[in-house]
Amino acid sequence: MLKRLSLVVMMMVLLAALTSVTVAQDTVTVKLWMHNHPPRIPLDETLIAQFEAENPGIKVEFTVVPDQEWDTTLGTALASGSGPDLFNQATFAMGQFYSQGILAPIDAEAAGYADAASVYGAYEAGEALLAGATFDGTLYGLPTELSAYACYTNDALWEAAGLDPATDFPTTWEELKTVAEQLTVRDDSGALVQRGFDFKYDASIFMLLIFNPMVQQLGVNMIDEVNYTATINTPEVKQVLTYWNDWVNNWKLGGPQYTSSRAAFLAGELATDCDGGNWFAPQAEEAGIDYSIHPIPVWENATNDNGFANYAYFFMVNSSAAPEVQQAAWKLAGYLTSDPAQYLDVAGLFQAKADFVASEAFQSNTIMPVFLHELSVSTYHPRINGFFEVSDALMRARDRVIIGGEDIDTVLAEAEAEVNSILAASQGM
Amino acid sequence: MSNYAPTLNPPTGTQFQQTVAATRWRKRMTSLMWFSIALVLTVTFAFPLYFMVISSFKLDREVLSASTQLIPANFQGLTNYQRAFDVVPLARFFFNSALMAVIDVIVTVFFSALAGYGFAKYRFRGSRIMFLFILITMTVPFQILLVPLFIEVRSFGWDDSYAGLIIPGIMNAFGVFMMRQFAYNIPDELLDAARIDGASEFRIFWRIVFPLLAPASASLAIIIFLFSWNNFLWPLIIIKDQNLAPIQVGITAFTQTHSAEPQWGVAMAVSTLATLPVAVLFVFFQRYFIEGLLMSGIKG
Amino acid sequence: MAAGTQKSSLIARRQYWGLVFVLPTVIFFIVFFLYPIISGIYYSLTDFTLLKPPVWVGLQNYQDLLKDRLFIKSISVTLGYVAGTTIPAWILSLFAAVVFFQKFRGREILKVLFFSPVLPSLIVVAIVWRILLQPGGILTTVLRPLTGSAEINWLDNPTLSPISMIIITNWTIIPFYMLIWLSGLTAIPEELRDAARVDGATRVQSFFRVELPLLRPTGVFIAAISTINAFQGFTLQYAISPGKGGPIDVNTTLGLLIWKYGFQYYRMGDASAVSMVLFAMIMIVVLIQLWLSRSDQFSLN
């Protein structure tokens, strides 16, 4: 690390010396918006300063935009022409930006690659991992953070139940139920004191991040992001919803009324939690929990072995920026994604460059290979306009069944109609 | 005792004493009955806030415990308060709230007095229609304005700024209405005398009228402070940057069901702090506080 | 005489100062009230997502609302919330006012403490009640002798959850309405009460015959403001109902729906249409209030 840093400093001095002679050409200003992730900001700032020193013709205007309502802030700024040239965009509302025609395809050469194909090659499982920023076969971004969920086990609670997480961790949802029962502790009145495993119910996006992937394992994707249609009233969806319903109402292993899974896991009240990314590990450590990490289970009758949905943040370029600004923006994006080791180390963000993944540092990491595996077998959540509205409608359907006790077939038929009408209305948004 | 029957003759001697004793006894019993009912009501209604304050001195897990510890078993002192400042930028939240409330109060009181006086004591074209217009704004709830006001303020480039937070709520129709009522009662002779003495109209307002409106201003100031300090919906919509958030928005971090970090002691400490300024005003200016509330007829 | 004319002409010449004094306020309300109201009506007739300019759709948004399940549900949710927070609050606050109108020792201090729920913001109220309403929390424990259950899902049970919102709201508003009743009671001349007493009326009779009719303006006023406030219900539902309006939308009031459509789904046109519907409903209440109090000269307003 130190070597590399001193190298960079030397280059900076050299370049500075060179450029001070060549007289400042017309400088290009790149407006960069990043969302607020405190650990990464000092790192961004350092790298941007280095980049500016190395590229005297490029000035970077760096703005940190608060997370909340990033999508509208950015969306309206872009629509009114006052937006950034380069921005770090989450995949959730990406469909919106793509359909608005705001995204510029990657300028691979400017970003430091031979061509677009070699960008895919430069990333581990590039086809799968970069799919989040690929539309119609064209790549629109470079990843700053790739995320997938895996299962965290509280090893102390597992051992207390006479189980070894390393060997006994279930590979199927059916087995998970059996194991969860062994891990569940109830008091005299039958109330749950400790849950073996539970789903994450509290925010609707988990319907697309967790529930839909469980349906995908059976070969059906509820949301078609290309044609904007929904397929919900199917036996596959019914199988998954029935399992969730049984989990809450018949097996009584958990439910939305209890503390949310992540908080419960950190509090030591939940033995297994399957909705944490690699960013969850420091939290578990801080909570003093001995944990290990395992792949997401699949169905016995699964046709796909995907885990839960991938999601990511990508550097994207504003298509209405001037060509030389776009070029400079891609150059900056390439530069800022050239040090995956530091970003994982300092900020906990995973940028799956193939050479980094092959490195000793990554391979010896105790948890990252599991997440990489999950990322490469899973697919991205649907990238649609109206993402949150569709999520809410799916959550409504789930709750009508597991809380309201309504008939599952009726609910699924109505949900399909509702989601289809939301999709139809939001397609042109 | 209850078999006392009224007679036409005035009661005498022991009979009289018995009557007095009976009345006194009955009075005492009724008074005791009312006291008991009032006590039950008060305990029911005051308990949640009592709970908030004592819980701010408890351990996190004890806050949630089902057993109602009326006095903290493990008194935590100000630990939770100190932790609160570590968890969220609390000082910043308080500064933002105070800034918003103080500006709201000053601007509202001044311009309400000015306009109320203008409506009460001058005759000019359009006076009636303008007053009616301001009166009508009082009947329209803020939620109706929410979306278009947001779009408007955004088009000014004021979203996520102090300007956007403060300016759209900086005046209050109720204040104008209230000040007009009070300004009516100022004798015209007083104003005319000042005019003869050569005072300018603004000087008359500032030197004579405004001081006379002081008691009304005090009630209005307190009520505007209460609204402003407890305002939630507008700041929620317009502020995204945590550094600009007032306390009521800042503490939503603790409101979500099933939210991640169950630091209940801290949540109670923050809640107590957020209520403190209003409680202090209430204790020290009870009369103005209640008058203002009664006149406004709204609980934010 | 000369001085008189001079004086009156001086005063006449200075009448325009009134305009100068009211103008800042009037301009403020034109910019931040009249303009948004009118543009709100306009937006309700458009498709508008903030990302593109509004597109005129006529009454389409209103027609869509008629088929909108969430909107229809939120109408019934709102009406339920209104019913639950007006009638009980009206009766209970009147009862409390009667209690605190009596003379007994410690009245003032009890009254001040009783009044305390008025002080905290609704967000603070939400945080505190969220703890009190934990499934195995304090309220469950206190009611255990009656209910027999060790766990009650106050917030997650779709039947119970709206009732919890109603209980909390009543807790915050009853002390305030009590105060209004009390000032009404205090304003009734003592002679009227005494006169009734002389007529041989019992306390209860005198209350219903003499005091309550005189409190009519106060009663109408409280009924009106509590209804208007209830129609706007938002903060509590936003802050403590699971998933902001859940479970299964049982706490999605019209106020919450405006927020959700406008600021979650960015359907500004639909949100504006819902606002207009809410506006109409509240205007009906205001008109009823005006009609009921048309003969009340001394209403607190």
Architecture overview:
The complex is a heterotrimer of chains A (429), B (300) and C (301). By secondary structure, chain A is α+β, with helices and mostly antiparallel strands. Chain A is 47% helix and 16% strand. Chain A has 20 helices and 15 strands. In chain A, the strands form 4 sheets. In chain A, strands 1, 2, 3, 4, 7 and 15 form a 6-stranded mixed β-sheet that branches. A 5-stranded mixed β-sheet of chain A has the order 9-10-13-8-14. A two-stranded antiparallel sheet of chain A has the order 5-6. In chain A, strand 1, helix 2 (41-54) and strand 2 form a beta-alpha-beta unit. In chain A, helix 10 crosses helix 11 (235-250) and helix 19 runs antiparallel to helix 20. Chain A is globular, with a radius of gyration of 23 Å. The relative contact order of chain A is 0.17. Chain B is an all-alpha fold and 300 residues long. Chain B has 2 domains: 1-46; 83-296, Orthogonal Bundle (MetI-like fold). Chain B has helices at residues 13-55, 60-64, 79-87, 90-121, 127-139, 142-155, 162-166, 173-184, 188-196, 201-212, 214-230, 233-238, 247-250, 264-284, 286-296. In chain B, helix 9 (188-196) packs antiparallel against helix 10 (201-212). Chain B is flat, with a radius of gyration of 27 Å. The two termini of chain B are 52 Å apart. Mean pLDDT of chain B is 83; it is low at 1-8. Chain C is mostly helical and 301 residues long. Chain C folds into 2 domains: 2-43; 67-292, MetI-like fold, CATH 1.10.3720.10. Chain C is 72% helix and 1% strand. The longest helix of chain C is centred in the N-terminal third of the chain and has 33 residues, at 69-101. The two termini of chain C are 42 Å apart. Classes of the chains: A alpha+beta (429), B mainly alpha (300), C mainly alpha (301). Chains in contact: A-B, A-C, B-C. The interface between B and C is large, with 101 and 107 residues.
